[in-house]
């Protein structure tokens, strides 16, 4: 389907378009034209990704700037999905246009997913794959090989050097799978192919971290130009990603390993002094001159990442007291010992970086400035020493990164030392949290650098919260409703059990037998009426466990068992995926199943329960965060102090966005249907914090139900859904053909013309009135009193 | 400080067992922590040999005595004993030495011409420190001598730097304290506001209940509606207070608190005004914003006026002329008549708001509902 938005021809790879998709694209275009950021909420299952891609690709191809698209998503499967959509879109475009466009689209994920090296790719942990790959591909390894030394290299990597550097892979859209296959065929490393080709792509799809984590972004995303279009999809959790990317935990164990790393370094330096003094001397000279080899430092295979440093600092020479290798190692050791001595404290403390630095200086004479250079200096040293078994130094690097971070940021961070894991623990297991409190810090470079950043998700309400938390201005903020030909989902709030006793998971009542029993009844009843799959969300693992064991005692699970298989999510990923598989089988073969899971777990975020995989979602309790956490408390305080966001507002916002995520799981398209039940008394007041598309579908009569009434409503709803429904019924309402779209556009135009006309008329009328007044004024000039005169003068002045 | 005493840990690069504070068992009396959980260890900076505090008591109470370590022949005093901060006593010793060095070499970057000089200085100091910490025999003695020499020669300078340092420190501390106090005040204020809001709400609820109880004139629903409206207005006001400012001046930097904090910490505007001399323009800056007047313009036409004596007239000044010419050239820039008119018509102030209005007009029937909120954000 082919249509115009203003002057922009859009090729949409389906014969029909949803009204909200059209509106979404209009707003996107407006944002791009205006050159600003936007926040858009698009109901789940309405083809957000495809609308986004088709508009932006159209935009790219139509205007001469050919702005590059950087599309960030969360998980590998989402990236792959987006790539497939893109591929289909490009194919459609080629068909429509009659020629294949000069276009390249690539996705990037970690080495672990893209590695081809027969032994490296078998490693389980991503960090080890990274480390091993680096030791095979580092610059000096190649040099050595060229010199004829016998070193291990990766043939897949070296083959790349034989190709033209800007044409490692032909044009077209490459899914991750396709990339792997191509790499296997041509014996070239897919990871580095994607990394190096990034500059030559029209569309890049990768995970948030490549842009947000300053440690990675520095190397991966450095070269993008300012007019790139950046999209964060599924961005409702973006603030947490930002915060995590700048936070760090240090444990006693990691310090012990770091000490070992430092000792190793020391030994290596000693060895090198004996054998190859020159190397060290060279490095030293370079550092003295402040000549940081920019190229080298940015090398893609640079051993370690540097956390962000302001550019002016990067150009500065390394401070004199850590220039010599042995000085630097002693410096590191002193710093590690200091951290160890802090860990000995048995009191919970929290302090600002400034305080930490003062204390550090007082006791170890370590100044802030060399500390800032720590990560940088370590990278240089490791490169000079030509270390290959990099795993040994991973923790040392963490400590160095921590040092740099703590010396770089003063505001928006906090150091929290927790000696015990929990309040009741006897054996100390101290953790030093270096927590970022301000989500805006990590994302600020992104907003500063790129002119258009698009933040979008299915559930990103309330929209105003995001610009506030992330510190940007949005030119467009919009939430779309779902146009439906029939009411295909039923949101309800259950506040009471059948016995009229209120239900809630608030702390005071959550373990009361009556509440637990009422929740149990709710579950049983819905298990009875719901066909096929049903998903239940609890606020936390802890609560889920306790309520399940109580249900067991009450015989409720036995009841449920009659209707459905019961499966439970656990923190273990493998167990959970097994549970999911079973769940799906049970849904398919008609046995039906309930999946009990956690509102902040993996299931709630990434897994879709479309069609019969999820006909009811039951959200038991408001999924608040665990408020006793010191880190959360600190963040709340910070938000209140800095952005004037009240604690309760934030907590409730956060809880509701997770609840909305859970609800969105069951409805994955327009032909899908499902029941959404929010079971907690407290939801009643928080209703307006739900995404608009859910909130609008919630009828006034459905917001304060007891279990039995809810079941009645659900039954009625399911009966309605069972009526035959032809695709044709949707047409013109929730699905537009090209004619419908044209009609809509014509109507819009007409309205705009009318509007303009009206305005014109008003202007005319105003004019006429003014003329008359003037004439009047001329006529009886003498009768006029002063006030009138002044008024007239004002009008004249304005004209 | 005898080299021999700390023997096993001194050479950099060798992997000898480090001299560390023991975890559980006193190396002198072999007492165990399991029997005495409050056991602490002490060291004496003469030789850094750790022992439990009971040993220290018993051995040195009566006066100076020899270190109980067999290999050590230092004479120690009770007064010198203290607890070590670092478990690794090599580091402890190093830090102690650094303390001495830092007291002598206390120059800051400002004292140097170039950054490079400063860095060289830092390295020299570090080299010296290394000799003191890890040096053998003569190397260390030399270093000690150098340190003493330097101290002798630069006594005055050191004192000066020290004073400067402590002044800066004091200033910093004071600032910090002020900032903390301001933050605390702000917090208290917020808490108070919230409490007030809660109380207000409670009162309103109470009123509703009472009114309902009395069954006052008219029906209960009406009373409720009336009181609810009142409540809404209150709430709106509160929200405006809370969220208004951060939205209003969310400039390109987006964060409102910057402006806020300044206000709280500095004197209020009124105070500032009173302290300033009277300004007839009431603070309007007459500085040109779009250009700066240069001292010199290459212009043959102006040259004679500058140089020739006979062109100089009392009160005439080339600079004045240039300034005026520039002013006239730029006058009127930045005044968008169309824009101002448009905003008048729609009675919304900012361009962003205009966009928002325009958008709402074009985006058709499916984007209703949130419109109100979206607009609010821009206003
Ligand atoms: S270069 Fe590529 S194929 Fe070779 S080890 Fe690294 S990631 Fe694997
Ligand atoms: Zn003892
Ligand atoms: Zn001794």
From TrEMBL, chain A:
Keyword Acyltransferase: no
Molecular function, one GO term: ATP binding
Alphabetical GO biological process terms: nucleotide-excision repair; positive regulation of mitotic recombination; transcription by RNA polymerase II
Ranges where the Helicase ATP-binding domain occurs: 7-295
Keyword set, alphabetical order: 4Fe-4S, ATP-binding, Coiled coil, DNA damage, DNA repair, DNA-binding, Helicase, Hydrolase, Iron, Iron-sulfur, Isomerase, Metal-binding, Nucleotide-binding, Nucleus
Entry's family note: Belongs to the helicase family. RAD3/XPD subfamily.
Protein name: DNA 5'-3' helicase
UniProtKB/TrEMBL annotation, chain B:
Gene Ontology BP, a term: nucleotide-excision repair
A GO MF label: zinc ion binding
Location of the RING-type domain: 26-68
Residue ranges, compositional bias (Basic and acidic residues): 370-379
Pfam families (UniProt xref): MAT1, zf-C3HC4_5
Cited Gene3D superfamilies: Zinc/RING finger domain, C3HC4 (zinc finger)
InterPro entries per the UniProt record, alphabetical: MAT1/Tfb3, MAT1_centre, Znf_RING, Znf_RING/FYVE/PHD, Znf_RING_CS
Subcellular location, record wording: Nucleus
Keywords: Coiled coil, Metal-binding, Nucleus, Zinc, Zinc-finger
Coiled-coil blocks: 140-214
PROSITE patterns, sorted: ZF_RING_1, ZF_RING_2
Main location class: nucleus
NCBIfam families: cdk7
The protein's name in its UniProt record: RNA polymerase II transcription factor B subunit 3
